[in-house]
Design brief:
This protein is α+β, with helices and mostly antiparallel strands. It has a single domain (2-150), classed as Sufe protein. Chain: A (Alpha-Beta Complex). The chain has five helices and three strands; from the N terminus they run αβββαααα. It has helices spanning 8-19, 67-80, 85-99, 103-107, 124-150; strands spanning 32-37, 44-52, 55-64. The protein has a three-stranded antiparallel β-sheet with strand order 1-2-3, with helices on one face. Helix 1 (8-19) packs across helix 2 and helix 3 packs antiparallel against helix 5. The N and C termini lie far apart (44 Å). Bound molecules: FE2/S2 (inorganic) cluster.
């Protein structure tokens, strides 16, 4: 798929995460694991989380896909480590708002490197790429919620 033209500094940051992804690899002791696939292209990721004392103690991902999907997951994992699980859902909502063109969300410093992806909102077919990791995260949070209500 052709890459959208974004601000060149942001483009560089996206490529940097794509080439040197953070938290990429398998985890042996994850509590929750989610596979997510973009049906329009077949690209996919696996996201693993481990929670301790209500915080994300570790997060890893594997997968293959376009630079936007893989950079977005890498940026997301960077922000997740150490965060209270209760705050993570609102982070996912904020990123989704950004991907739907919300300019306030695009300026929110809590979003870290993910702000480099704000321009992707102008390319509707690529929004799914950017959301792949967060869709996996939302599913992981649902699974964690289910397992805590079962106990
Ligand atoms: Fe497949 Fe981006 S083209 S996730």
């Amino acid at each position: 798929m052709q890459e959208p033209q974004l601000n060149s500094l942001y483009q560089q940051l996206i490529l940097e995460h794509y080439r040197n992804p953070r938290n990429k690899g398998e985890m042996d002791d994850s509590q929750v694991e989610v596979h997510m696939r973009n049906p329009s292209c077949g690209d996919e990721i696996k996201l693993q989380l481990r929670v301790e004392h209500g915080r994300i103690a570790d997060v890893r991902f594997t997968g293959q896909g376009c630079s936007i999907s893989q950079a977005a997951v890498s940026m997301m994992t960077q922000l997740l480590k150490g965060k209270p699980v209760d705050d993570v859902g609102s982070m996912a909502d904020r990123f989704t708002e950004m991907m739907h063109g919300d300019e306030e969300a695009a300026k929110d410093r809590r979003m870290g490197d993910l702000r480099a992806l704000a321009g992707v909102s102008r390319f509707p077919v690529r929004v799914k790429c950017a959301l792949l990791g967060f869709d996996a995260l939302q599913e992981a949070l649902r699974k964690l919620g289910d397992s805590s209500t079962e106990n």
